[in-house]
Amino acid sequence: MSTARPFLLCFLLAGLPACFTDTTGPGPTILRAPDAGTRDGGGDCENFSGYFRALPDAVCAPLGGPTVPTPMCIQQTGCDVSVTTPSDVLKGTVKNDTLTVSGSQFDCTAIHGDTGLSFNCSTRVGAPIYRCTIPMEAPALPSEAASVCCDPVAQSCGDGQKCTYIQKGTNQPYVSACLPKQGGGFIGDTCAFTGIGTDVGRDDCQPGLFCTRAGREQSADRWCRKLCNSTANCPIDQVCWSLSSISVPRGGVCAPTCTFFGSDCPAFATCRAVDTIQPDGATVSGPGCTTKGSGQNGDMCRSDSECGASLYCNGAVCLPYCDPTHPCRDPTQQCVEGVVAGTKLGYCLPKTH
Question: Are 175 and 165 in contact (CB under 8 A)?
């Protein structure tokens, strides 16, 4: 086995096929299954672990289309493996040099070879198998990160460390990593970033907590909130606010819930739809208290925080929420349901003729 060779990961995600290539790392190491002598798929197995994301401007040729969702964490314990993306988790095992995983949409196998890792997938809904290539990189992480792809809820890091989400730069993906523990802020305590600049993840909250403005006034200090991977991790009066649409593993923070059109938010806030993570892992819109401004129906805006009570920023205009008991007051608007699944909550949008 060579000591350095390309890493080729062919995947089928969100309806798009992809292959990922990493040419910087060594060849796979060999792990031993804990019960190798008795289990199906036992024996020595190659290590597929790692954190990867698509290179900038990569496209999925020859079919084209948008970049396949990344980043992804490939996590392996013994010969058990899971592949986590922002939209799915595929689980399975590794037997010798072959990885086999299944998710909600796909069944996949992967084999190391002299030219890399070939990942072949078939859909569970009868669509044909597609194959193409897309370059993948193992992005640079903070030097103090002991490892990546840890469990922020279970706190799977070693002594003196905490598992938290880090983000290297604005609009970059969130990924979990083991960082040195710094500070001891409790839930609700004011907190601050402690790293170079304002790098997300380096904060003075206790392990299991995250420094954020979720549920606070936009101009206020950040506070320590409990990390979660679903609303089931949160107290009864809170929901799991998603940190980002691009994070692995999928995660958020527990923050107060509220009643649409109600008065249970603090004076600085109003109840709006926020991205929440449900017990089944789905990310859906749910109620959360967010900063309100002075903008009224039809006023220009750049974000929700510039709009008043029960209004949100649609593109660049403040528009109201609505439901059967709170109809649109502007006769030029109509209530379009679908903000929160299973409810009648909607948006007041201009009428179409």
Answer: yes
